[in-house]
Design brief:
- The chain is 35% helix and 9% strand.
- By secondary structure, the protein is α/β, with parallel strands linked by helices.
- It has a domain at 1-45.
- The protein has a four-stranded parallel sheet with strand order 2-1-3-4, sandwiched between helices.
- Helix 7 (180-187) links the parallel strand 3 (170-174) and strand 4 (192-196).
- The protein is globular and about 65 Å long.
Length: 238
């Protein structure tokens, strides 16, 4: 069966997923994939999942002020860091794990200080844990950031395993690289959230590239856009 679902392209204003009696395009999963919606809905009846989802929804609502006023106007009041602290308390978590990039060690130390002052026990592991040279995973000299120097590999699987062994109840990812974050999520056992993702150019605000994709980052919409290696390969084929 062809799966042409793409909610990001939905042109409907009164969407079926957001408005009772709403509409949707021919591929709308809310309207035309009811079998999977109903099948998965049963998982929320599992006690642990139900409570987690319930507290997450409560946390979502508490991030807005004046909800009792009519008409209601969105008035967000809490930072993501405050949300993480409050949600962790709602769930009764005591031990929090932090998997962070060495490039934000200062920020990680501030995060740990704040969490510990809020009464949490923390276990924090840096991305370069183990000090294993990049050659171990087949990286060539010219593929390093600093050519000609020792360069340790990022080690997200060990980060995950250390937090697993520490029996952390809830984990926070802080600026792990693209790909390394995926490996961490694949191997971590406890539920994990993200405080920030790495974006070296925008000060870890990747949405900036989307907001400026019609101006400063319009090159992202061009077919010829790609990495330096990809560009060289394309030029070589011409």
């Amino acid at each position: 069966m062809k799966n042409d679902i793409n909610c990001a392209k939905c042109p409907i204003v009164k969407k079926a997923c957001r408005v009772k009696g709403g509409e949707g395009p021919k591929w709308c999963p809310t309207l035309h994939r009811r079998e999977i919606v109903e099948k998965i809905l049963g998982r929320y009846d599992q006690e642990e999942i139900r409570e987690f989802a319930r507290q997450a929804s409560i946390q979502e609502g508490e991030c807005y002020a004046h909800r009792d006023q009519t008409p209601f106007v969105l008035h967000p009041t809490k930072s993501r860091l405050e949300e993480i602290i409050e949600f962790s308390r709602k769930m009764g978590y005591k031990r929090l794990g932090i998997a962070f990039c060495g490039g934000v060690s200062l920020e990680a130390s501030i995060l740990v200080e704040i969490l510990e002052k809020q009464g949490f026990d923390t276990v924090a592991v840096t991305c370069k844990v183990g000090g294993i040279p990049k050659e171990r995973i087949g990286i060539k000299e010219e593929e390093k950031i600093q050519i000609g120097k020792f360069e340790p590999m990022c080690n997200p699987i060990v980060q995950a395993e250390i937090l697993n062994e520490a029996q952390t109840e809830f984990n926070i990812m802080l600026c792990l690289c693209v790909g390394h974050d995926s490996l961490f999520l694949k191997h971590i056992k406890a539920p994990t959230t993200v405080l920030a993702v790495k974006d070296r150019v925008t000060g870890h605000n990747p949405m900036a590239a989307l907001y400026t994709s019609s101006s400063y980052y319009q090159r992202l919409k061009r077919l010829e856009f790609g990495s330096e290696t990809e560009m060289k390969e394309r030029m070589g084929k011409k």
